[in-house]
């Protein structure tokens, strides 16, 4: 009853609002990395099977997004950057988001099993569970390591893509996972440095809130150092090569340098220039991941030629 009264004066939902529930920006990363994982695998996959596999992985990622928005509606309503999402804005009800998330979860897992193989389908089901339950319902509100452990959910798609082609796991797919897994903390912590108040108001125990910005800066730099060897190691596997290696060396040198610049800054300087360095490193982190996976894709094409 309360749910009905809360939404009766809200604007009517449009198709775009239901698409927004699926977190299309996150889904685009899921689609791209899953496609790369499938493409670079050492097994030829029929184009129709490949298309269907990536489509159902994308729907699984969208299902995770809808379940996340359903559970996090209270947090989203407080944070400035999420207040306009469909549920806190009152255009979509929480029950609708839950229904969409559960329906897409079951559909995507079942169809991936039929289109590719049941190992990949089980992997997708575990990923949805990990993001919606382990990360959203537990880690996010409980520990400042939420991004570190929860980052695994966003790192699984290339492994699922690889599993669609091969039916299993290999060193290459694990290293693609590691690339995303160790990239996630410095990426989000760079954002948190200039969005700390949002997390503080929402009661989310982000590292900037629990340990302060100085500790967060140290963690960012440390993770850029940990990340680099995995990125280089991937270039030494069967899916690597000179093009990928060149891209990885340049990008990791830039990312480490960016982490070093963040480490050396104090809060007074950061506030004075509007967190210019932190914002530039965050922007670099967006290109970092995309260009690594693009290099893997182009390297594979070059090998085919």
Main β-sheet description = none
Mean pLDDT: 91
- What is the ordering of alpha helices and beta strands? HHHHHHHHHHHHHHHH
Strand content: under 5%
- Number of β-strand runs: 0
Named CATH topology of the largest domain:
Tetracycline Repressor, domain 2
**Can you give the helix content as a percent range?**
over 70%
Rg: 20 Å
Structural class assignment: mainly alpha
* Contiguous runs where pLDDT drops below 50 for at least 5 residues: 1-7
* Silhouette: flat
Q: Examine the secondary-structure arrangement and name the CATH architecture of the largest domain.
A: Orthogonal Bundle
What is the top-level CATH class of the largest domain?
Mainly Alpha
Count of discrete alpha- or pi-helical segments spanning 4 or more residues: 16
Count of distinct structural domains: 2
CATH superfamily of the largest domain: UbiA prenyltransferase
Keywords: Cell membrane, Heme biosynthesis, Membrane, Transferase, Transmembrane, Transmembrane helix
GO molecular function: protoheme IX farnesyltransferase activity
Main location: membrane
Pfam families: UbiA
């Amino acid at each position: 009853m309360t749910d009905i009264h809360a939404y009766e004066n809200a604007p009517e939902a449009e198709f775009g609002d239901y698409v927004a529930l699926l977190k299309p920006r996150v889904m685009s990363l899921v689609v791209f990395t899953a496609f790369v994982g499938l493409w670079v695998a050492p097994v030829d996959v029929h184009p129709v099977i490949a298309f269907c596999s990536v489509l159902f992985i994308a729907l699984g990622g969208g299902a995770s997004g809808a379940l996340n928005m359903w559970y996090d509606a209270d947090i989203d309503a407080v944070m400035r950057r999420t207040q306009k999402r469909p549920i806190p804005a009152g255009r979509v009800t929480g029950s609708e988001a839950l229904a969409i998330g559960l329906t897409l979860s079951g559909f995507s897992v079942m169809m991936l099993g039929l289109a590719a193989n049941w190992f990949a389908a089980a992997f997708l089901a575990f990923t949805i569970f990990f993001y919606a339950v382990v990360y959203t319902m537990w880690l996010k509100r409980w520990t400042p390591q939420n991004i570190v452990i929860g980052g695994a959910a966003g790192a699984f798609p290339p492994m699922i893509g690889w599993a669609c082609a091969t039916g299993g796991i290999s060193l290459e797919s694990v290293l693609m996972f590691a690339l995303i897994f160790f990239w996630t903390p410095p990426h989000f912590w760079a954002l948190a440095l200039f969005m700390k108040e949002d997390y503080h108001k929402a009661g989310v125990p982000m590292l900037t809130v629990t340990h302060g910005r100085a500790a967060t800066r140290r963690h960012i730099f440390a993770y850029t150092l940990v990340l680099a060897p995995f990125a280089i190691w991937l270039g030494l596997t069967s899916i690597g090569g000179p093009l990928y290696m060149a891209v990885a060396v340049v990008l990791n040198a830039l990312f480490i340098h960016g982490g070093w610049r963040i480490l050396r800054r104090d809060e007074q300087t950061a506030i004075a220039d509007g967190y210019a360095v932190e914002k530039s490193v965050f922007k670099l982190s967006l290109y970092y991941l995309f260009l690594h996976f693009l290099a893997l894709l182009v390297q594979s094409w070059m090998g085919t030629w």
